[in-house]
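Instructor's aside before we start: the two examples that follow are unrelated to each other. I chose them only because their records fit on one page, so don't look for a connection. First example below.
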Amino acid sequence: MAALIYLFETLLSLCLLAVLLRLLLQWSRADFRNPLARSIVHLTNPIIVPLRRLLPAIGRLDTASCVAVVVFALLQVAVAPLLSGAGPLPALLWLRFAAVEILRTTLWTYFFAIVLYAMLSLIAPGTYSPAQGLLVALCEPVLRPIRRIIPPLGGMDWSPLWAGIVIQMLLILLR
């Protein structure tokens, strides 16, 4: 039974990550001509397109993507108790766990994106790859405010380090 719970939680985590990445890339106004962004869109279209027929966008807010993120978080939180035979969670607890899961997944996504962004800027500065373009679009809205507070010192940009520290602190507070 533990293997089945693991399988369902992993699949739902990957689905949550995919729809969350799509939403974050929309919010950061990423270039969707990028092959990686396009693959995320194609991967999530079977879920998002039918939802868009029911839930039109409100301004810049893609309600279909938001609902998909919430639904996958709710499913992910509900899988373990239901499959282990513990029964469904109380509604408020279920919603709280889902909100924490969305926050945690978002923070981990930004943490790993910033780490990859910093590593690519050290390994291959001045070059372009589709991954680098996607990471720039995703990470710059987070790193820009930190750069205003902490300017580059000695020619090094320390904003990814401080962003990682803040993200880890927030993850500790979520526990």
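Example two begins here.
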Amino acid sequence: MLDINPLLLSITIVVFLILIAVLNSLLFKPLFTYMEERDASIKADQDRVGNNDAEIAELTAQAASIVNEAKLEAAAIREKVVAEAKELAESKIEAKRAELAKDKLEFEKSLAESREELKTTLMSQVPLYKEALKAKFSQI
């Protein structure tokens, strides 16, 4: 029947164990080392990407903060400039109003003087007008 030769069986077992030892040292250990290094590299890359996401979020928040501060500062500057422009315009308007009021007073004063002159002139010529009227009435 089936003959089992113990010498061949023992040689086959020894060759099998030697083959496993050789394959373990030459193939499996470098393969496992490579796989572990690759896993570590992938994990490190993922951590860096995660850190980059955190940095990007932080930088985005900083940029938004800077933009908001700049907007507030620009609004403050704009309000200050508008206030200064209004103040300058008001001062110019007040100066012009004062000048116009002064001119109006001078004009009214000259108008009053002209009225008095005209009145004086007319009063001085009233006798002439009376005589001219008498002459006209006498002709009628």
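The two ends are 185 Å apart (CA to CA).
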